[in-house]
Design a protein that fits this description.
Blueprint (H helix, E strand, L loop, with lengths): L9 E7 L2 E6 L5 E3 L1 H9 L7 H15 L2 H12 L7 E4 L5 H9 L7 E5 L14 E3 L9 E7 L7 H13 L1 E10 L3 H6 L14 E2 L2 H8 L4 E5 L6 E6 L8 H9 L3 H8 L4 H31 L1
Parallel strand pairs: 4-5, 4-7, 5-6, 7-8
Antiparallel strand pairs: 1-2, 2-3, 3-9, 8-11, 10-11
């Protein structure tokens, strides 16, 4: 079988719920077989039905009032341009808008979310900046954003369409946090991550695969060193990140107006601390492991 991302040969990796997953010999991605992916694209297999939302709503709320807040705060440090608007792509019920509006009420108008296949109205946010539709339906351009627990549900063809929409709706220099388990994460941390029917996880994208999809639209994919479950994607990047040290440099040298903006709201000082410490925690640990490996190689 050929990889649906880079068309290189793939071999059988695992079978989950009757669906075969294949590992690409080149980009390393793990993807469901071609027929199943086509069924997803045709709507024959629905990733976001009622059963999915019944299982997902509690986890969505926990993320939105927990780890996702930290990820948004980190973006205020990673961004290389002044921040004007934020978008949560594939927001599900939109709970992240609720948590951001609670913690940063003075910045309420800058936060947006979009969801193509939302749960029932009773389970959604009432925030007026919650858009039911695709990212292309948004009228604004954005400078930062998140896309958490989304792309593993998307076939490469659908993700390609999202990449095109992101390029259209991004300011030059916009940066996004993309949370999704990579093959390394699947193999070493969560072997059950691939789940075609209940969780709807049909592809585990590698960093190389994401570059293959996003680079043609002007994006640079930045690994999140020490984290095999997320990347940064920057539109028309002018500040290269070649290693953990370069990413660390962004953390310690943020755009000052962005941190001032964050701190201007109710819990802004708290979130500024959360974003800084969260970013440092992973990056400095990755740098430590890299130094330790180099030291051992010299022994």
């Amino acid at each position: 079988m050929k990889c649906p991302i880079c068309a290189k040969p793939s071999s059988l990796f695992a079978r989950r719920a009757g669906v075969d997953y294949f590992e690409c010999s080149d980009c390393g991605s793990l993807s469901a077989d071609a027929d199943f992916l086509h069924d997803v694209e045709r709507g024959k297999v629905k990733n976001y039905g009622d059963e999915y939302w019944r299982a997902e709503l509690m986890a969505a709320r926990e993320r939105s009032f927990g780890s996702s807040i930290a990820r948004v705060a980190e973006l205020f440090y990673y961004a290389r341009i002044p921040i004007t608007r934020f978008i949560d792509i594939g927001s599900g019920p939109g709970y992240l808008l609720d948590s951001l509006s609670t913690l940063l009420p003075e910045l309420h108008d800058m936060f947006y979310a979009v969801e193509l296949s939302p749960p029932t109205i009773a389970c959604r946010t009432k925030n007026e900046n919650y858009i039911v539709g695709s990212l292309g339906d948004a009228q604004q351009k954005f400078s930062i954003g998140t896309c958490i627990e989304v792309i593993e549900h998307l076939t490469p063809a659908i993700l390609d369409k999202l990449a095109a929409q992101m390029s259209q709706r991004s300011e030059s220099g916009a940066i996004y946090y993309i949370g999704s388990g990579q093959p390394e994460y699947v193999k070493n941390e969560d072997p059950q991550y691939l789940d075609p029917l209940v969780r709807g996880h049909v592809v585990s994208y590698s960093v190389q695969a994401l570059r293959h999809i996003f680079a043609p639209y002007g994006f640079t994919v930045i690994p999140m060193f020490g984290r095999a479950w997320c990347v940064l994607i920057e539109y028309k990047s002018t500040s290269p990140v070649r290693n953990a040290e370069d990413l660390q440099s962004r953390i310690w040298n943020p755009v000052k107006t962005n941190i001032s903006l964050l701190k201007s709201s109710a819990f802004g000082d708290f979130l500024a601390t959360v974003g800084l410490e969260s970013a440092r925690c992973y990056t400095e640990h990755a740098m430590f492991l890299d130094c330790s490996a180099k030291a051992k190689s010299l022994l």
